[in-house]
Design brief:
This protein has 239 residues and is an alpha/beta fold. The protein has 2 domains: 174 residues, Hexapeptide repeat proteins (UDP N-Acetylglucosamine Acyltransferase, domain 1); 51 residues. The protein contains 6 helices and 16 strands. The strands form 3 sheets. A 7-stranded mixed sheet has the order 3-6-9-12-14-15-16. A hairpin with a 2-residue loop joins β15 and β16. α1 packs antiparallel against α3 and α3 packs antiparallel against α4. The chain is elongated.
Length: 239
């Protein structure tokens, strides 16, 4: 079982990395392959309820490879972690065969909620360098997550997601007529923009009202007779 999974991981590395020259080199030098092997051992310990020992193995693997995978994460054979430095995979994450994960990627959660709080990556998903997939949703088969993207909700199959927050720009290689700009319904920039627009409108209304009030005041001052001037006029008439 362990050997067959190792062979699948090495084959995935050979398939997805054009720099890989042969399987023996991959077995000796690829940190992603080493991290997956360590994880499978840690996962077995975790399922045997030796959780402390499983975490120790996980942390030793992190020290050796720069890749942190929680022992409870479910990773299928045939996954490729390229370079791998800085990759983090959370406790309830599930990674299916054919997935490619590049350095700096995170499969994490959004808070301290319980239950399923890490993503599920279906077959042949590509997670580019520095991408963050946060939450207990599913990334559909064949989806591509762009470098540095922050994905906060479910991704349809064969979609391409880019940006912060992530938005779907292509599906099956074809551009989306109206890109999905709502990966996060509480996007702070959208809130700030709406608030600024509201403030600008309000300021314009106040300026208009103030201008009207000042104009009325000036007109009223002009209509009020100067009492001193009237007394002088009356006095000159009597003389």
């Amino acid at each position: 079982m362990w050997f067959s999974r190792l062979r699948a991981d090495i084959a995935a590395a050979k398939k997805n990395d054009p720099a890989a020259r042969n399987k023996f080199e991959i077995f000796l030098t690829y940190s992603g392959v080493h991290a997956l092997s360590h994880h499978r051992f840690a996962n077995r310990l975790y399922r045997m309820h030796l959780k402390l020992l499983a975490r120790v193995v996980s942390q030793v693997s992190r020290f050796l490879t720069g890749i942190e995978i929680h022992p409870a994460a479910r990773i299928y054979p045939g996954v490729f972690i390229d370079h791998g430095s800085g990759v983090v995979i959370g406790e309830t994450a599930e990674v299916h065969s054919g997935v490619v994960i590049y350095q700096g990627a995170t499969l994490g959660g959004t808070g301290k909620e319980g239950g399923k709080r890490h993503p599920t990556l279906m077959e042949n998903v590509t997670v580019s360098a520095g991408a963050k997939i946060l939450g207990g949703f599913t990334v559909g088969e064949g989806a591509k997550i762009g470098a540095g993207a922050v994905v906060l909700k479910e991704v349809p199959p064969h979609a391409t997601v880019v940006g912060v927050p992530g938005r779907v720009v292509r599906i099956r290689g074809e551009k989306v007529a109206e890109p999905d700009l709502c990966q996060d319904k509480t996007d702070p920039w959208q809130c700030y923009r709406k608030e600024l627009c509201h403030l600008r409108t309000r300021v314009a209304e106040l300026e208009k009202a103030l201008g009207a009030a000042c104009g009325e005041s000036a007109a009223a001052d002009a209509e009020v007779p100067d009492e001193a001037a009237e007394e002088e006029t009356e006095g000159a008439g009597e003389r």
